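User: Quick one: structure for sequence A, then sequence B.

Assistant: Sequence A:
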Amino acid sequence: MRIAIVINKSWNIYNFRMGLVKAFLKLGHEVIAIAPEDEYSPKLIAAGCQYVPVEMENKGTNPLQDLLLTKQFYNVYRQVKPDVILQYTIKPNIYGTIAAKLAGIPTINNVSGLGTVFIVKNFVSKVALALYKFAFQFPAKVFFQNEDDRQLFLENKLIKNKITDVLPGSGIDTDKFKPAEVFIRNPDFTFLMIARVLYEKGVVEYVEAARIIRQKYPNVRVQLLGGIDESGNVGIKRAVFEPWVQEGAIEYLGVSDDVAAHIAKADCIVLPSYREGTPKTLLEAAGMGKPIITTNVPGCKETVIDGYNGFLCEVRNAVDLAQKMIEMYELSNAALERMSKASRQLAVEKFDERFVISKYLSAIQSVKTK
């Protein structure tokens, strides 16, 4: 089969969907990656994909641009002629689905996170709801990454229940992401947050919590790995963020293609996000046997059994986050190691990417036989 994968960034395909891509290629399917061109586009070609660039403004809400995007998707789909299209992120899910319907090609969509439009209630979010309701008449299947997101779509009557299913996020390669052979606790206990520098990821709360814990335990290291994104109103401006780093509240690690190496050096992974699909970084952390602190919100809470492999904290509450970080730091080595092993077990039993691949293959087979 010719399988097209459509996402808002080539980076996204390479970092989050390569397990699925490799599984398709191994089974003899053709894979066409359709995404805006970036430095990861050649890597997709090197991995065995065909690649077709599209132009897409991720955060724009201009109706004319979105109409042109639908036309662009339609032209590409007619040109590529895939047997099925797998779509991720809001614009492919909406405008790509409409284009695919016009082109007569079945789609399997993935709501990998609801984004700002569902966190902030405003006119744009109302428009997004209406667009989802129209577009989601047409897919053969829509996967969600947590049950809360699926229920939100069902309660708002955006989709029919019979075409929905829930995946364990994007899954994790538990053979690649695995713990060190010997458990070691850092002399200077290290917390690590992996996320873009956005308000909705909880960066402000993380910095405030860092100040609190470092007042009590100055030797504790609090790190952040992820890109600064100043576009729109969701990104924290560099002029705001850099003074936090300069004051020594947190260590900023920039960006990296080897996230696993940073996870390996940390004692605990922290993500105080306001809402997620299911964060890939937390799945990677679990696979590598790292205790996790994250917010008790959809998408994040699925990765932690409170007190078993980590702690859940209140969203937008820096004091509660700091308390959970202090609680983690004060664990004995034996208790910390038990949490480490529990995270690994949860990754293997619940989040292995083989579960994701199996569901996609089943959905594709169902489309093929219709």
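Sequence B:
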Amino acid sequence: MNLKKIFETDDDKEIRSIMFDSRKKNPDSIFFAMKGKINDGHRFIEQAIDNGAVAVVYTDEIAHKRDHIAYIKVKDATDAYVSFCNAFYDYPTEKMNTIGITGTNGKTTIAWIIRSLIANFNRCGYIGTMGYCYDDKIIDSKMNLTTPKSDELFRIGKEMLDHGCKTLVLEASSEGLLTHRLDQVKFSTAVFNNLTSDHMDIHHDMESYFQAKCLLFKMLGTDGKAIINIDDPYGVRLLKQSKAVNVTYGIENAADYQAQNISLHNDRSEFDLIYKEKSYHICTNLLARFNIYNLLAVIAVLNENGYEIERVLPYITKLETTPGRCEMVEVGQDFNVVIDYAFTPNSFEKVFAFARSITADDKKIIAVFGASGDRDHLRRPGTAAVADREADIVILTYDDPSTEDMLEILCDLKSYFQRLDPEIILDRFEAIKKAVSLAGPGDTILLLGKGSDEFILDKNGRIPYMSDKKAAEKAIELKKKKII
């Protein structure tokens, strides 16, 4: 791309790539000297040039400038970076029907199922916690962020567009919104599922967290669709301030898309969907009450985007479920094993409610979980309180300690229990084996926090882990052989 196409400059250098990391070789690239919470990009300008940058976008005065380098001064380097990324990849989200999903819980499930359903009719891409995918194949599952940085986001968008995708479903995290990664994305539809306490290490209070979520809806034009859960009090607030075409869903309150007569089982969920005074009976393999909300959002998105309910219904009975989200492990055992990413107090409430709904009163709920390091420590008292109240047995185990000591994390977590005395087993597989060994017929084991992750995040980065599903399957086989 020629610099003149984007910036007011006489320099007509051709830019072949965008440099984000000044430490990596990147010939004929452009470097943006952005200011973050810790680092100031101006400190790395010389290193960027040494590694191939031929253009530098900056805000503060530069004492020394090299010959043959294009220096472009702007008011806001981050804004310039996002705009350039969008232009460099030829504005991909403006050429697809782009749907954004936000909320504390359910983003991944909603986005993943929307993608899988639309894929029955047209090519559809997905970007989020699971990585990014199209054509039912996960192209890259190792992205470190739910909402990737702008250069990666628009590059992926261009790749999907070139592949023939007509729709992009995107998880919009509050951090991604707050750090302007999505500023140039053209959204046609946005979903708000819920808001509960989380990420207080970033937002500090619920009002700031809510306002970050609202940024997504400010990106909608007046003809955009805002699809909002009005059973959530923050959804009610958002509904009042949204300038888009508002569409509501819920269970408790009258809504455009409302679920009634809900019946939950350990292999399916059933309910009546009420839409425009017409009733549709829904039977789905999605489990738990919280997934009813997720499915209502999915149906609303598809119907509002031209995929009529009648066309979608046949595919809802057997949905492509999201790995690690309320996922049942079934290898012939006589007890339930449920895997879920739950790591907040609210998500614990929901998954334990599901466990109670599929577990007889005289049977046990055994919970295996830990807590991550370097993040919102306020989660720990809340998750412990829910497990202390709802579980019969708790085993605390390895999660993602990051730079903290895992044993110290678990001892801290254990200190919040009052009724139960959890056992600490650091090795996650050994903890799962112990839970399986304790499970009797009809009991339910909850494996929480890691979902489908095949890694553990510690101070050295990502280290391989077999996944909770494989660990559970292996432990169940050992129990069948009476080894444990």
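The radius of gyration is 24 Å. The chain has three domains: 3-88, 92-316, 327-480.

User: Thanks, that's what I needed.
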